[in-house]
Amino acid sequence: MQFWGIVPAAGVGKRMNANCPKQYLPLFTENTAHSTDTYTVIEQTLRRLIEADIFDKIVVAISKDDAYWSDLPISTHTKILRTQGGKERADSVLNALLALDGVASFDDWVLVHDAARPCITKEDIHLLISTLCEDDVGGILALSSHDTLKEVHGNHIISTLDRNVIWRALTPQMFRYGLLKQALEATQGNGAVTDEASALEMQGLTPKIVEGRSDNIKITRPEDLALAQFYLTKQYSTTPNP
Predict the structure, then answer these.
(1) Mean of the pLDDT values across residues 51-80?
(2) Which of 121, 138, 189, 200 minimizes the number of CB atoms within 10 Å of its CB?
(3) What is the mean pLDDT of the chain?
(4) DSSP secondary structure letters along the chain
């Protein structure tokens, strides 16, 4: 059985108000005995996936108009394959799955991970795999909710939701290659598909959840860069080789 990574990275990250897509913003500076290297968001994300030492290949879905990717040293890594991204996240993931057609087997595992989640740890990746590797469908990393949650219409609170049954979806999301491909093909163009699990749910399947780390944040707003930098610095200081 083989494991394949997919990183949809064709978005522009409008909420960052930056002069380039958020995945290309500088994030983490690593000082070693020999050099000082600064990594962009996507480089740091891909470094973490490669360090997990589980993937046969990692397919990165890049916009056809992308002017940044080919300048990154990691773009030529032997584990990395490039494919064209789509209009929506689901389109990019499906394109990446199609790029593996004839290479990946139906029951192989695919782990889809956000380009803007650079703090993922190899421990969480291996926890997801070890928990779900015998499952027929797969599942996702997730976090239980500790906040009080409100259902809102406009700016008015309609009700308070039961936080005991609410989980925040994280990535990676891990599913059988064939099932995920079929689900995304069947739901193509459906705006309700906001992650891979939702496509499987629409096919009547029930993905599982595996509780992950709270520092696996997604960079969405400008202040998230500083928080990701903090988490990465802390992770590397406590675990030299994450």
Answers:
(1) 96
(2) 189
(3) 93
(4) --EEEEEEE----GGG--SS-GGGSEEEEEE-SS-EEEEEHHHHHHHHHHHT---SEEEEEE-TT-SSGGGSGGGG-TTEEEEE--SSHHHHHHHHHHHTBTTB-TTSEEEE--TT-TT--HHHHHHHHHHHTT-SSEEEEEEE--S-EEEEETTEEEEEE-GGG-EEEEEEEEEEHHHHHHHHHHTTT-TT--SHHHHHHTTT---EEEE--TT-----SHHHHHHHHHHHHHHHHH-S--
